[in-house]
Amino acid sequence: MTPEQFRRHGHEVVDWIADYWTRIGTFPVRSQVSPGDVRASLPAAAPEHGEGFDAILADLDRVVLPGVTHWQHPGFFGYFPANTSGPSVLGDLVSAGLGVQGMSWVTSPAATELEQQVMDWLADLLGLPESFRSTGTGGGVVQDSSSGANLVALLAALHRRSGGATVRQGVEPERATVYVSSETHSSMEKAVRIAGLGTDAVRIVEVDGDLGMNPGALAARLERDVARGYRPVLVCATVGTTSTTAVDPLAAIGLICQKHGAWLHVDAAYAGVSAVAPELRELQAGVEWADSYTTDAHKWLLTGFDATLFWVADRAALTGALAILPDYLRNAATDAGAVVDFRDWQIPLGRRFRALKLWFVVRWYGAEGLRAHIRSHVALAQELAGWADADERFDVVAPHPLSLVCLRPRWPEGVDADVATMTLLERLNDGGEVFLTHTTVRREPVLRVAVGSPATTREHVERVWALLTEGHDWLAADFAAQAAEQAAARAAERARAEETPAADTPA
Amino acid sequence: MTPEQFRRHGHEVVDWIADYWTRIGTFPVRSQVSPGDVRASLPAAAPEHGEGFDAILADLDRVVLPGVTHWQHPGFFGYFPANTSGPSVLGDLVSAGLGVQGMSWVTSPAATELEQQVMDWLADLLGLPESFRSTGTGGGVVQDSSSGANLVALLAALHRRSGGATVRQGVEPERATVYVSSETHSSMEKAVRIAGLGTDAVRIVEVDGDLGMNPGALAARLERDVARGYRPVLVCATVGTTSTTAVDPLAAIGLICQKHGAWLHVDAAYAGVSAVAPELRELQAGVEWADSYTTDAHKWLLTGFDATLFWVADRAALTGALAILPDYLRNAATDAGAVVDFRDWQIPLGRRFRALKLWFVVRWYGAEGLRAHIRSHVALAQELAGWADADERFDVVAPHPLSLVCLRPRWPEGVDADVATMTLLERLNDGGEVFLTHTTVRREPVLRVAVGSPATTREHVERVWALLTEGHDWLAADFAAQAAEQAAARAAERARAEETPAADTPA
Predict the structure, then answer these.
(1) Residue B177 — φ and ψ, nearest 5°?
(2) Burial of A166 (0-12, 13-18, 19+ CB in 10 A)
(3) Three-class SS state of B179
């Protein structure tokens, strides 16, 4: 494709996206295709001859859009949001157009240095400790996901704990232990498996009524394990759990980690970016104890996936775990020690120029724009929680300090509450106006309403609330009618049984 | 940013990229900034108020471009290429604009199903075995890099070897062994470290004169290790090593792996995609023995980073190692087992919709376009090798079946050949017209000329050859002059010493 063809088709694609964003509210949020539908609409083999761009663009509407669940839809309240924005998409477009590979400083110095600078900016914006700045012993780096960040944090912790012995000798699965709560994200357990420890190394610490980790239980668990000869490697504390945005108390946990030499990793994947608003930083009090910290700009900070912001207080532990320098990667700048090579801060070797999209987002919105974005969603969620609190049809089942509200519908006596709740969820999602997901709190399913799509306004939150209450009323009535019908049927059955002697019973 | 603002600024960015591609040949290939230059041109803190898009675009020229090493430059012959193309950039742009997260089938069915289909297409295009097709026990998936692919292959192998015990109990670093050659990419060793085995588990098998793994040495090493109680987990065979594109003999290695129950992983990161041209498939004879296989569309198949094509013959081993299903990810489609959830095929949870760019590339170029692309680079490299073979100033030091040629300059007697070779490299790279990197073959530095940037034509290969020979002549003359000068100085010193009695020697 020549530059001039790219210019023409590029304009077409930009227009297609602008049109998509304009009409996004007209799609059902959750894709309504069945398994196999999308594949069935595709040819069995690749084309032998190249096709025109018109045909490709047309298939976006014919094949792709019906199979898309619209994460940027204002009615998307599922999971956590996956924000994107115009400046993010355009920063990413520049990155794709440059097509550079930032594995080493020398392979594109701007990719490394812009990332260092933007990560320092973001540490400032979030009020994170000095130890995370590139000017000290630590530093920030963009990772592919908080799953990846949790893994590299664990690898750094293993390296530090073993005094570097893991590099040659590997891990000691029978001795190493890692501490989480029942609410910690599953990616931490996955990291433990990937790192070769196995899930037996995971210690699940009790949570309090607010679903935050109980520091007393953590301390007791650590004491017991140390007494038994285990070697605590890492404690994962979460700020804003995936299930309910519960918050583990960092200050108390930090002290305990220090006592035992355990690495404190803070997984603030969703909630961390809320700290752009100073009044929300109290949730993270004690963050200065953290050895590492992760939060996703691609969840709630207007930056497209992937853009995980990861900081470490001692970068030597991280690069000690991950650096390898074969001859074909040697270069004068690296040999002189004058530069940072981010390939040694992550799992893969290659790197995209992801700092560009963050730079575009921060500059376009400014600090005040990012604060306004976060605050508006928090305010909407608090309104929703207020409506639910005041309504006898729903319980708000967990603290909701940010923009996620977890609701448990109340059902009439005799109704299977779990089935009814999941039926309500499916009904809403089938309707197409909104999309919610569920979680389990104290063994019961609850509905998660995550306010966070950039296009979501008060009107959409009002609408999801109306759909929830209407759906509840309709289902409650339906279940009640069913229950009444069943009761009537049973009564009729009993009546018939009393009138008619059983045929096989001797008179 | 509203859709209409996005439309306007999107056109501006598309134009900026089209202009960049048009003028790319005017930039020095390797960035000429010094460490710290880029950061020094950036503000110390993020802006409080949002900025206009003009200011951001202007800084691309002011701040970013001087700090970029231009991987898409026709004079880029370094490392391996990192191809991109118009259709790839536009496919990625659509992906960014949709902003969907394809971790599970339900979160955007098209993201999963298009990926399955395109990976099946590509398995066909590359002539890969039936076992890798999604219709059988295996399947293909897009990974972030071949580093990531090497890691997940190892995790799957560990899972299979242990009968699934690694999930709970972790690895056995003191027993597990992994086989590579001295030419295997460093990411395999990195994977071994990440997976908790430590580098002591790595067995480095001898290579033959062509730098391919010696199967006899592999067999002997395996026998010895098994006899000593080790448990061979995985053999990594490379098709197209990073250093010289050497090829390990897959057929012989496959038989040996089968005998010992070791997982055969084929790392064809660079060379694998060459198999779109059937006449180049012989390099991979025996690929049907592979348990897993990786090749990078983002190196040499016109698709921007990242787009690693990874196939596995037994997907259950992979998902057995990597799947975790917390409540908040449960959904009807997953529970019914009717769909594939690609989050369980990779390290991170989240996924971009990377199949779009592959789909755009394959459709725009067609199979014949991809073949022509590969063949043209192979032909150019063979021409270059021919010129070097016929020239007494350079040796071609390794087989060059594809598009990489490794050259060792010959230097006059008395010249430090290693210093001279590296000086020639720096001289060429400082010149800015071309960019090369080096490697070490049999302990000597050699220059790698990797023909593979999409814009590279015969004219650019002629030019790099002219620069190499001119640079060689200039340096050889310079070194000879230096040597003559030194010899003259030594002679003069000797003459002076003979004429003048030493002052401190008694007469």
Answers:
(1) -135, 150
(2) buried
(3) strand
Domain boundary among A296, A319, A353: A353
Q: Please list the residues that pair with B469 across neighbouring strands.
A: none
Please indicate whether, in this complex, the C-beta atoms of A100 and B369 are within 8 angstroms of each other.
no
Taking CB atoms and an 8 Å limit, are B306 and A145 in contact across chains?
no
Q: What is the edge-to-edge ordering of all strands in the sheet holding A437-441?
A: A394-396, A404-409, A444-450, A437-441
Interchain CB distance below 8 Å, B366 and A50: yes
| In a shared domain, residues B405 and B483 | yes
Helix, strand and coil in chain B, % to nearest 5:
50, 15, 35
- The domain tally of chain B equals 3
Print the SS3 string covering A217-240.
HHHHHHHHHHHCCCEEEEEEEEEC
Dist. CA B133–CA B131, nearest whole Å: 6
Taking contacts as CB-CB distances below 8 angstroms, the residues of chain B near A166 are 193, 196, 198
B177 and B310 in a single domain? The answer is: yes
Min Cα–Cα distance to chain B from A298, Å: 10
Q: Which residues of B touch A63 (CB under 8 A)?
A: 110, 114
CB atoms within 10 A of CB B209: 9
Is the Cβ pair B113, A305 closer than 8 Å? no
pLDDT for residue B339: 94
Closest among A303, A323, A269 to A95, alpha carbons compared:
A303
Mutate to test the interface with B, among A32, A64, A95, A368 (most CBs of B within 10 A): A64
| E strand or H helix that includes residue A446 | strand A444-450
Residue A507 — pLDDT band, cuts 50, 70, 90? very low
Using a CB-CB distance cutoff of 8 angstroms, which residues of chain A are in contact with residue B166? 193, 196, 198
Query: Does residue A174 form part of some domain?
Result: yes
Tell me the two tokens of residue A166. 């893991």
* Same-domain status, B169 and B290: yes
Q: Are A472 and A447 spatial neighbours (Cβ–Cβ below 8 Å)?
A: no
- Give the contacts of A8 (CB within 8 A, at least 6 positions apart): none
Look at residues B42, B59, B57 and name the one whose alpha carbon lies nearest to residue A115: B42
**Euclidean distance between CA atoms A452 and A443, whole angstroms:** 26
Q: How far apart are alpha carbons A168 and B173 in whole angstroms?
A: 10
State which residues form the domain around B408. 366-492
Q: Is the ipTM of this complex over 0.90?
A: yes
**B322: nearest CA partner in chain A:** A190
| Residue ranges for chain B with pLDDT beneath 50 | 506-507
Does residue A412 fall inside a structural domain? Answer: no
Identify the CATH number of the domain in which residue B180 sits: 3.40.640.10
Contact A185, A80 (CB under 8 A): no
Q: Which residue has the tokens 């023909």?
A: B451
- Convert the pLDDT of each residue in A393-431 to its tens digit: 999 999 999 999 999 999 988 889 999 999 999 999 999
How far apart, in whole angstroms, are the C-alpha atoms of residue A84 and residue B96? 8
| B356 with A64: Cβ contact below 8 A | yes
Residues of A with Cβ-Cβ distance to B5 under 8 angstroms: 86
* C-beta neighbour count of B196 within 10 angstroms: 30
Q: Across B41-115, where does the E strand assignment appear?
A: none
Distance between CA atoms of B292 and B313, rounded to whole angstroms?
Answer: 6
pLDDT, one tens digit per residue, over A379-395 is: 999 999 999 999 999 99
Say if residue A506's pLDDT is above 80: no
Q: Is residue A410 within 8 Å of A395, Cβ to Cβ?
A: yes
* CA A276/CA A425 separation, integer angstroms: 33
Of the given ranges (A326-335, A452-461, B272-281), which has the lowest mean pLDDT?
A326-335
* Angstrom distance (rounded) from CA B89 to CA A95: 9
Residue with tokens 């002219």: B466
pLDDT at A119 over 70: yes
